[in-house]
Amino acid sequence: MANSLSRHALLASTLLISAGVLAGQAAAQVTTPAEASPEVAQERQDGDPDIVITGSRIGRPDLETASPVAVIGPQEITFRQPATAEELLRDLPAVRPSLGPGVNNGSDGSSTINLRGIGDNRTLVLLDGRRIVPFGLDGLTDTNVIPVALTQRVEIVTGGASTVYGADAVAGVVNFITRKDFSGLEASGQYRISERGDAARFNGALTLGGNFADGRGNAVVSVGYTEANPLLHTQRSISAFPISSTTGLFSGATAAQVTIFASPTNAQLGLPASAFGAVVNPTTGRLQAATAADTYNTNSGTYFQTPLNRLSAYAAGHYELTDGIEAYASAFFVRNEVRLQLAPSGTFGNIYQLALNNPYLTDGIRSQLCTARSISAAACATAAAVQGGPGTAGYIETPVIAQRRFTEYGPRGNPIESRVFQIQGGIRGTVTKGINFDLSGQYGETTQNQVRENWGSFSKVQQALRAYRTTGGQIRCADTSNNCVPLNLFGPNGSITADQLAFIDLDALINRKTKLSVVTGNVGGDLFGLTSPFASKSVGFSIGGEWRNISAASQPDAPSQIQGEVLGTGARTPPDRGRYNVKEVFGELIVPLVENKPFFYNLQAEGGIRYSDYSTTGGSTTWKAGGEWAPIEGFKFRGMYQRAVRSPNVQELFQSAVQGLGNLAVDPCQSNQLASASANAGLAALCVATGAPANTIGQIPAPTSGQINVTTQGNPNLQVERAQTYTLGGVIQPTFLTGFALTVDYFNIVVKNAITQPAQADILNGCYSSSLNPTFANNAFCALIQRNPLTGSLNGAGETPGVITGFSNLGRIETAGIDFGLTQSTRLSDLGINVPGTLALGFNATWLDYYHFQATPNAINRDCTGYYSATGCTNPRAEWKWNGRVTYSSEVFDVSLLWTHISPVSLEPFLATRLAGNTPQPGGPNPTTVLAAYRNIPAYNYFDLAFSVRPTKELELSLTVDNLFDKAPPLVGSGVGGTAFNSGNTFPTLYDPIGRAFTIGARMRF
User: Fold this and answer.
1) pTM of this prediction?
2) Quick check: is 657 in a domain?
3) 737 vs 180, 732, 740, 819, 836, CA distance in Å?
4) Is residue 665 in a domain?
5) Cα–Cα distance measured from residue 446 to residue 465, given in angstroms and rounded to the nearest whole number
6) What is the pLDDT of residues 134-181, one digit of tens each?
7) Which of the pair, 633 or 859, is modelled with greater confidence?
8) What is the domain range of residue 775?
9) Taking 60 as the threshold, does the pLDDT of residue 633 lie above it?
10) Does 682 fall in a domain?
């Protein structure tokens, strides 16, 4: 891929000399309120029948909704030069970082958006006001399908929009709006490279459009190509190897890898206690206590930036059939190839039956195993000489957990190819003067093929371990089927041969497909000229209906469906499928009440209602009511209240039990927490009750690589969740301050009967904490914990579910805060400066007052404002986030500086507070188990510099310098956040791990 990107760099350089595009004129700030955005205002003044007003279906250019709408304009897109839509949005104050290229372990290859931090599944992503076929069973939209090159602007409604668009818009809507009536040829290209010469990325697009039939029609087609190189963890010093958040020492090393025994334990083997188990001493041929230097560097081969290869095509057109009647259609196709990668596969925590006549087993290890398993010396010697497998006289095998990394294999690859297409067509026009209609249908499919390369087969490893040496000295398998090759599990790094790897090799395949069909129609506009006695504008209305059908299925191959068969997965991948349909009717009214009266320059009321009938959850209603009041021109107060419902998606309803991984630095039952049963008999009893063998108490190992098993599953009995959202705020655009706009909006969201899963910490603390469970009763939380039957740990393959979570309607989510927006654009000549051009200032911020999450009534009502943790609050949730931009623009060039601020965050307190009763309860990890240096992250400030120049009318050249001062991300170790987000000893979705990077771009339009 690197050679390919070098060619792309040459292409980009050529474009810088010979190509470019005329930049669209827009406000120079990061985001603007829709009222202050010139491109939106112009569209509304023009009365374009194809105008998209995000947050309403009424489509009246002269009416504005009371919901706050922020706009990312074309100049901001030019300055940022994003290759994907996710890059454009991830740093916005109202957005919490979600899945994207910074997520390696736990990603599915998609890039999603999480408004207000209340869940990706509560944010609706639209393209020109239309739904997009979901990426997977969770119903989320992969923003990689958005045609960035054709995007005119992005409008974001963060006050909830379920009444207008449907159930999954509880937090709001992100609407990508494409350029309309494009005519001409446009070519663009961008190439990014970090200062260190890595993390390269190329993005190119070609757009062609034109009018036809004497201007009655227009068609446009755009094709794009994106390629991004991976950035490995080992390419940055902060992530060269995993660092324990509890000790500050590396929890992995590059020393030659040898087999580590987790069962039998050190004590059973007659060795000193060690958290790392026993390791093979290649000199003595015996097992000795392991140290950290014997572990493997699990950051080897893993990514800070996942590689991406994307090819996309988008086409749209419209044609005026007769006066006032227009047919339109659009279609897009995207092929994404994303590669995830993990450290090499191995035997991990699987339980294997080890034959005592295994030819690679040394006499010393065999003797120690026999002693540990109470096998007599005579029987042990006899078993060692047996020439055969199970059923042969004298044959003995013993269960072991022998952890050997197959370093000879190379990294575990997880390439994911997705193909998405969607087509849409409709007809719109005028019913009577002032009343328009729109009727359309759409269909889309996403096909996802996920391959697991170099992961290996559990059953073949087991077959290869049942081996013996013949009289002639030949080493062979007891079961020779499938051309079995005996496996040397006990040699040093490099001792596993290519033939041995070839036999245990397994490349698993998982196929997923989702389908979306939508038929929708609405009529709206001027309500037959009906007006208030005190207003000239007539009432605006919209009524309509929609039918949607969603289906999703996951079909893994046969090995993936077998419990623990694919090494490194820990569990099977079951075939899941589900579908539902929904029939909806909806209506909206915007009523101008008073205009141009003293203290009532404008008074307007707004309301809407939607009734939904889901095939899974039945009927439900959502509604909104609000309005705005401008006592004088340029000063406006606004508010909106909404009652919303969200029905569960296919994954929440139908997902089978699946094991994954969760971060945990310290297991309450591990050896240094519970040295013996007598130290705390009640806690020891609970450890045994949750699956730990009694003889492992005092010897239970710490979580492997700081991770434990977590099992999740759906619930077909789920019902709708119900939300109350409201916004209160104002807009100041005084007539005496040209180019000035200030917006302040308070938001409040409460989700009741929330479809949630209990936090891992809630379950562990609910069972083992003396505060929550003072009598150490074997309670309902303990029933959700199942430990390894050999070691007592929370690690292992399919036989160790670990912490079991499931979906329910028992959750509650609450969040509130204030959004601020400020813009000022001024000609320098107006300031008395004799320099042509304008100076634009833009600032938008979100202050998070609180975010509360309670998974069940018995769980902690967790306050995650300003906190992070491995088991509760996961990745950081900053109290303050803001973007500020200052831009100088002239006729020929622009220069702009962007400031992004993230306020300080801290480790979630161990003693959280339950809101009802203010009784302290264990929340996050005990701070004594995390180093003080990793319990706090200071405020972070990033600065990005952007230049653009237009040497000719057709050409624009751009340079963007990201992370101008090369600020390094915070070091917090590998165990203080959620597995997907606490990667490379930091939080790469929130803090930049790439460092200073340069993007050059060119656009040309004919």
Assistant:
1) 0.87
2) yes
3) 32, 10, 6, 22, 20
4) yes
5) 42
6) 999 999 999 999 988 889 999 998 876 888 888 788 999 999 999 888
7) 633
8) 653-717+764-786
9) yes
10) yes
